[in-house]
Backbone:
């Protein structure tokens, strides 16, 4: 038995609410069960009850056993002085306030139907990958879609938090913030944090001034990444090395530590050298990038922004001093999709929220026009009969698994609550 199940039962009155009696023998009538705020203090605030002939207004605390009151040290916390009812599954000890008056107790197990308990146990006891995997395909499509929308915006809220944090640090420079998060996603999982540090260590005002020469942008990126410290015969390498030293002095850049970039086990097209060259090309070609992504009306417009190839040198190289067959090395559609999902759409959401604008439907339509991600979590859901047609579906399923299933929050999940009804 878990407390969250008891919260669910009390909140939704999944028990026989007539003829209730406290352990002290007084009749209990629930006028209002209170508000489940999920914050510090009692579980339900501002409940209204009638106990015996007296009407009470106050808070309700819920535990599996009544003795848990002492286990959790509530007798020493003044926040619990306002508790007017202690709701428990099993009564095993009397509980007293600081003034030595006994707190009325309702023992729920006497009022919960056998079927309600069996539904809960069938959902939460047997598990292979997630608790409800055998019943997912039976969930009403309308309920599932409504819950997906909730999951989608929860995910966007989470992704927007670091954006707003950075804006506080850089004086609300949206262009600079976009650059930092784009850089992180260009680095993918292997080098994302290093790329993020590289972007944050170069004042965006410097990029604005130097963007007109691709060699200067590459010198800034490769120099800050620590890739221009060796002695090589490669003429382009030596040119970038000279530019980096000049720009470092010109703008009085600070020396910072950046985690060494990883090449091991990466496909050549994902080498950090190529991704940095592509990032440099993007900012060389595009002016006012933040404004462009926020005013784009379709995914095709966004794809056009990221349609680019690397500079001439990197078309015949993956690393310095090692020539390779010529290749355009443009951003693939799947890579652009990752940028849109993980950077562009969260930035659009954050900016709209900042301005007090409502663009929910537009963001959903954007994601519905993007192919779904391919990963182990999405594959598992499809195995259980869940349709994954686009990035909106895959993003919401990732949120579901990572924020609900992994933490056993079935009773806070729209799908779990729907299954309990059956």
Residues:
């Amino acid at each position: 038995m878990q407390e969250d199940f008891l919260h669910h039962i009390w909140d939704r009155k999944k028990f026989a609410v007539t003829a209730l009696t406290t352990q002290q023998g007084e009749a209990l009538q629930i006028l209002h069960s209170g508000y489940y705020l999920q914050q510090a203090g009692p579980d339900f605030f501002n409940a209204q009850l009638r106990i015996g002939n007296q009407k009470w207004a106050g808070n309700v605390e819920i535990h599996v056993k009544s003795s848990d009151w002492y286990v959790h040290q509530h007798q020493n916390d003044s926040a619990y002085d306002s508790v007017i009812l202690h709701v428990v599954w099993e009564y095993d000890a009397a509980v007293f306030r600081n003034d030595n008056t006994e707190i009325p107790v309702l023992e729920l197990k006497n009022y919960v139907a056998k079927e309600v308990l069996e539904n809960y146990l069938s959902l939460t006891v047997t598990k292979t990958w997630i608790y409800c995997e055998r019943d997912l395909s039976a969930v009403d499509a309308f309920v599932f879609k409504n819950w997906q929308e909730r999951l989608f915006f929860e995910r966007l809220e989470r992704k927007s938090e670091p954006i707003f944090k950075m804006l506080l640090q850089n004086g609300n420079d949206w262009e600079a913030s976009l650059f930092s998060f784009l850089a992180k996603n260009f680095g993918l999982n292997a080098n994302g944090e290093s790329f993020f540090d590289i972007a944050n260590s170069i004042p965006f005002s410097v990029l604005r001034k130097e963007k007109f020469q691709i060699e200067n942008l590459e010198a800034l990126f490769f120099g800050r990444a620590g890739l221009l410290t060796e002695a090589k015969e490669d003429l382009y390498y030596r040119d970038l090395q000279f530019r980096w030293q000049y720009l470092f002095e010109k703008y009085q850049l600070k020396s910072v530590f950046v985690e060494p970039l990883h090449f091991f086990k990466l496909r050549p097209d994902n080498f950090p050298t190529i991704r940095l060259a592509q990032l440099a090309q993007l900012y060389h070609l595009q002016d006012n990038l933040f404004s462009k992504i926020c005013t784009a009306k379709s995914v095709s417009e966004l794809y056009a922004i990221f349609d680019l190839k690397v500079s001439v040198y990197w078309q015949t190289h993956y690393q310095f001093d090692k020539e390779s067959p010529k290749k355009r090395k443009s951003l693939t559609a799947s890579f652009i999709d990752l940028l849109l999902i993980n950077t562009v759409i969260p930035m659009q959401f954050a900016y709209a929220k900042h301005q007090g604008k409502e663009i929910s439907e537009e963001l959903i339509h954007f994601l519905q026009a993007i192919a779904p991600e391919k990963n182990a979590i999405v594959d598992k859901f499809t195995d259980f009969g869940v349709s994954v047609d686009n990035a909106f579906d895959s993003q919401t399923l990732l949120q579901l698994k990572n924020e609900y299933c992994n933490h056993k929050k079935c009773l806070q999940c729209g799908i779990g609550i729907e299954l309990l009804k059956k």
The chain has a mean pLDDT of 92. DSSP finds 17 helices and nine strands in the chain.
